[in-house]
Amino acid sequence: MAQQEDVFKKIVSHAKEYGFVFQSSEIYDGLAAVYDYGQNGVEMKNNIKRYWWDAMTLLHENIVGIDSAIFMHPTIWKASGHVDAFNDPLIDNRDSKKRYRADVLIEEDLAKIDDKIEKEVAKAKKRFGESFDEAMFRHTNPRVLDYTKQREELHERFAKAMNDNNLDELRQIIIDREIVCPVSGTKNWTEVRQFNLMFRTEMGSTADGAMTVYLRPETAQGIFVNYLNVQKTGRMRIPFGIAQIGKAFRNEIVARQFIFRMREFEQMEMQFFVRPGQELEWFEYWKQWRLRWHKALGLGDSKYRYHDHDKLAHYANAATDIEFEMPFGFKEVEGIHSRTNFDLSQHEKYSGKNIKYFDPELNESYTPYVIETSIGVDRMFLSVLCSSYEEQKLEGGDTRVVLHLPAALSPVKCAVMPLVKKDGLPEKAQEIVNDLKFDFATRYDEKDSIGKRYRRQDAIGTPFCITVDHQTLEDSTVTLRERDSMEQTRVNIADLHKLIHDKVSLTTLLRKLA
């Protein structure tokens, strides 16, 4: 684990050094849990958003997009339950004065039991070699059985406490499990209490009587209050979906792990409206389809897993997370939820407006049920960055740091480099840049030796480097170097466009899903 933490520190450092992510307000000593995206980071982030948006709106004829305002009428948040119930259970350690989410402390304790089980399995696998029957070992080994029983009992107790919103029981679990503060190492815990995560502000002048409004903690409600507008103006028939990408804000007390948990973040959400009774079929469809979207990036199928929710939100009848293996363990990057008709029913009740859908096939009106897919752009960004980072040892003892980014998401698609800064080579290189730049993010680079330039492009994940040399002026060929293999091939300038397009185009990625 310590080794993985070291790798994560290197990734965070690399993200800053190469213009991906900066600490917000850094020259003023920063603002905790708020980050800015640099020149390479914003390009990669935009590519992630484009991949999601096109996969939703181009590949599904019944999904359209909107962009709703961040400020919304405050009664919306009363109707959605956020004013009364959007809370985290927090606990303080009296010695370190540090505050933690009680549920996260217990989840981490469960993960430790899982690690103990896996260590036992790994030891046995090493001992018995090819003759090892893992399934039999898991079902018969006394130590593994003991850990499994321990885990199941803890899991059941934790799930019940969360579902019952029993704060005393959450604290008691922490005491009984002898969970210590990671900073002080002590078990001197306060009571657990709820903390509302919404940012509030005033709208209008005080003379007129200002209205308390909230920065939205999610983008979903903007879709719900507009669903009938979209349905009518777009002549949409159920089932149909509405997609949105936008900023959300949560006053996270326990904000950590770089851009994994932030106070200002971006979401990509799609709400899919279906007939009552068909929601669980569609839930299953979207659960499978969203995992395919992730796996199409080629980051490694084994890095993903589903995590079904123990505690269902009061409005949901099914929920699962798609988790990705970060350097600090498997963590949620996307949630798929069957939200029933809770949101639309609440908005109908609180607004006093009829927002039922008339189904011409059934010749009846009803409140649609909703399947939600919700993914954090920043978490997605982090998962791509972490899985792409490699410190690679090369032949001859040399090393390089390379980002094996999915080519379609890379901030720069190709870099054009004159071998030397004379003899007409820079002019020829610029000519190639001017031809490619309309279709690909193309960079011109003439500073330092060609080897250093290759390393610089490897570090930002550029899939292709194009070197212009003296032979180029004679026969219009260039050297095309591929990032991952470092293979160099001689190609015609006229063929560059197609060669690059086939590897870096978003269309190529989307065709895997179509």
Summarize the structure.
The protein is α+β, with helices and mostly antiparallel strands and 514 residues long.
Structural account:
This protein has 514 residues and is α+β, with helices and mostly antiparallel strands. It folds into three domains: 1-75 and 197-395, BirA Bifunctional Protein, domain 2; 87-195, Herpes Virus-1 (2-Layer Sandwich); 412-513, Rossmann fold. The protein has 18 helices and 23 strands. The strands form seven sheets. The chain has a seven-stranded mixed beta sheet, with helices on both faces. A hairpin with a 7-residue loop joins strand 7 (199-203) and strand 8 (211-215). It is globular.
Write the layout of secondary structure elements.
Blueprint: H1 2-17, E1 21-23, E2 35-37, H2 39-57, E3 63-65, H3 74-79, H4 82-85, E4 87-92, E5 99-101, H5 102-128, H6 134-140, H7 142-163, H8 167-176, E6 193-196, E7 199-203, E8 211-215, H9 220-224, H10 227-233, E9 240-249, E10 264-274, H11 279-295, E11 304-308, E12 318-326, E13 329-340, H12 342-351, E14 357-359, E15 364-366, E16 369-376, H13 377-388, E17 389-393, E18 399-403, E19 414-418, H14 425-436, E20 442-444, H15 450-460, E21 464-468, H16 470-475, E22 477-482, E23 488-492, H17 496-504, H18 506-513
Parallel strand pairs: 3-9, 19-20, 19-21
Antiparallel strand pairs: 1-2, 4-5, 4-6, 7-8, 9-10, 10-16, 11-12, 12-13, 13-16, 14-15, 17-18, 21-22, 22-23
Helix pairs in contact: 2-13, 2-18, 5-7, 5-8, 7-8
